[in-house]
Structure formats: C-alpha cells, structure tokens
Write a structure and sequence with these properties.
- The complex is a heterotrimer of chains A (219), B (100) and C (107).
- Chain A is α/β, with parallel strands linked by helices and 219 residues long.
- Chain A has helices spanning 10-14, 28-42, 50-59, 63-75, 77-85, 87-93, 127-130, 135-138, 140-145, 150-156, 193-197, 202-206; strands spanning 103-108, 113-118, 166-171, 176-181.
- The longest helix of chain A is centred in the first third of the chain and has 15 residues, at 28-42.
- Chain A is globular.
- Chain B has 100 residues and is mainly beta.
- Chain B has a single domain (16-99), classed as SH3 type barrels (Roll), CATH 2.30.30.50.
- Helices cover 8% and strands 34% of the residues of chain B.
- Chain B has two helices and five strands.
- The two termini of chain B are 26 Å apart.
- Chain C has a single domain (31-106), classed as Cyclin A, domain 1 (Orthogonal Bundle).
- Chain C has helices spanning 32-46, 52-60, 64-69, 72-86, 92-106.
- Chain C is globular and about 45 Å long.
- The chains are: A alpha/beta (219), B mainly beta (100), C mainly alpha (107).
- At the A-C interface, helix 2, helix 3, helix 8 and helix 9 of A face helix 1, helix 4 and helix 5 of C.
- Strand 3 (166-171) of chain A pairs parallel with strand 4 of chain B.
Chain lengths: 219, 100, 107
Amino acid sequence: MSEHQHDHGAGEESQGHPGGTPDIQLSYRAKRSLAMQELLVEKGIIAPDDIQRSVESARARSPSDGARVVARAWVDPAFKQRLLDNALTAIAELGYDFVADTGLVALENTDELHHVVVCTLCSCYPGALLGPPPDWYKSLAYRSRVVIEPRAVLREFGLELESDIGVRVIDSTAEIRYLVLPGRPAGTEGMAEEQLAELVTRNSMIGVGLPLSPELVTT
Amino acid sequence: MSPDSSDSAIFGPGDRVRVSERYPASHHRTPWYIKGKTGRVDVVYDAYMNPESRAYGQAGLPRVTVYRVEFDQADLWESYRGPANDRICADVFEHWLEPA
Amino acid sequence: MSEREKPAPAAHDRGGWATEEPVDQGEHQWADWEYRTQALARVLRSKGIVVTDEMRRGIESIPAPEYEALSYFERWSASFETLLVEKGVLTPAEIDEKMKEVEERWG
C-alpha cells in the first residue's frame, strides 16, 4: 500500500488535475472509463468541467465533518437527542446536507451495545459526513466476515470487547446510511468541543474503533 | 427518518418477521444470509423507491416501506460462537417480509 | 430449507462467505482516474442519466470471475459501459475508437 504524497501547485489543481496519484500505468477498465468520459464531453452530454467540479466537492468531505457532529453530541445532550431522533435535521443544524432520497441514522454505542457498520452488497457509506469509504470498508474480506465473525474482525482492528457488550452489526442494505455515535472517552470532562472533535476517528464512527484518548492529542 | 412516518406499513416495531426465501437473479437488496431467517422489526422507516424496478430504468413506484429488522446472530449462523446478545440488523423492503 | 439447499449467492452478495482472509487495513492513494470515475458517477446521476440502483445492477451483472478480479472502480467502469450503451448514450464502436486514442496517450 503506497503512502505516496504529491505536492500539487494551485495552478495544476485549477487545470483539472484531480489530485490523486498521476495516471501512469492504466488498466484496460481504467482507460475505458477515461474514454467514456472524453466521449461524453465531446458529445456535449457532460460539460468539460463537470468531472473536475465533482471531484473537488467530493474531496471537500472528510471524517472531520462527522467528528464535528459527534463532538457536538458529546457536549450538548439536547443536540444528541435530536441526532438520535432524526439525524438528517440534526446535521442540517450544523450546515450539512445529505443525498436526496437517502436517510441517515445515528446509532449510539453504550456500555451494553456496540455498533459496527457494513454494506455486504456494495459499499453504502455516509460519505457526506465521512468522506469516501476506506479501501478496507469496500473489501470483500470485510464485507464477508464482519457479519459472521464481528468480534474477530474488531480484534484485527485492535478492538477487544467484553462479552457483556453486545455487538450489533448494521448491514446498510437499503437507502439509509448509518453513523456510529461512539461514547465520549473518560478524562475529557474539561475539553472544548473543537478539541473533542480531534479525538473522533473515522473508524470510531464506522464502529471498528474507539475515539482517541485525550492524552494522545496535544492541546 | 421518523419511525412513524410510513402510514401504510403492515408491520410494527417488535413484530416477528420471516424474510422471504426467493433467489431472483435480477437486482434486489435482500442479502442471501438473511433469506428464510426470522427476526423482529426494530424500526419502521419511510417508504423508498423500489430498487427492483428502478434498477431497470423504471420509476421505482409505488414506494415500498423499509424496515430495520434485527436478527440474533445465533439464528443466522449455526456455527456462531459469540455471546447471545450479538445481533445483526439489515434494512429490508416490505415485500420481502412475511409474518412469523 | 437447510443451508445446503440454498442456491449459492451472487458474487456481490458477500455477507457470511467463508474466508479467513484478514481485512487489509492499508489504504492506497487514489489515482486520478479513480477520482474521475467516482466523479463520473455523481455527474451521471445529477444529470438524470443513471440512478444508483442501475449502477448497482450494472456492477452485479459483471460475471463472477471478472467481479473478483476487478478493482473497485474498475467495476464501476464496467457498469457505466453497460448502462451507457444500453441507454443509447454511447455505442461500443465509438468507445472502441476513443480507446485507441487513450491507448496511444497512456500506452
């Protein structure tokens, strides 16, 4: 797995470079995708900058959006209740919107119940709050295994749960997307909302991890 | 997603339901591993466009109520070794559910 | 019906398949074409050319051996081609013709 970083000047970005690894060696299917895109532009079916604009709006989404929602729920019990009752209207209070005809539900992890989310049929994921799903979320291994041996999968992610905590796997098989609301870590009583948000990892909002401990975050 | 928003829902929270055992090759959103299995309705969601017609260029109408159905892990997998309070939820369209 | 009598699940219907393969938690940096392919899905949806259910059906119609072999966005590419041809938006011949240009550029 490459951890390759690229520096792109602003000029290059504005000329339509999506900002990923430059295409050097492309597979047949990758080339086929580019060929279709070029044809659609030539035929006037899509505009020349449609793709680039869409890339930029997708890149603007990241797990920090979901983390803001979680941190707000930690400090504001009334907001947390609204989030659990109707997540779509609650996130709208923070300025987030969601794909039309898609639902959003927040599920709270407690001392008795731990939620972990999967899409066994494809890769459904609350991208508007978490950005694009990680590779492992889309992997055949995760999709196969987390429903039948969730505790073994969680253990691989470093999460060993006591047997008195029920594991509830959520398979998002329809148009409802799920956000896990992890429990607030101990020792964070005095922390401000913005600092708390830094503790909220992407994996904790999928349910394969817990929020960071406060001593791991410099203040 | 208000839980009471689907007026025509034929099942309510707590109802025991069995997932229909049908195996069409065409597009549908009911995963294999819950087919023929019995669970209980956890949440009644809104009615959503029907993916089984919408996947083939149709409008997906009439909309179909979706339920969050909860299963005990032990009812899904004979070999499940985890604690009895381990569960799975899946979102299932109404026409895939029968009273159990 | 016992487990034994159940027909085998389709390649995309993955829940509960027997595998001991660990979940690879590494993440690759997306290539440009992957960003563009994801964006194409959004653009085609926003213009009402395809809907998500059709995209999923297009992916599910990939023959099982190919489904296993293709990467995530390669599957999307295959689905777009199925749908755009089926809807008469593009023809296989013009995609083949354009491929020649792309091949020349990328080798």
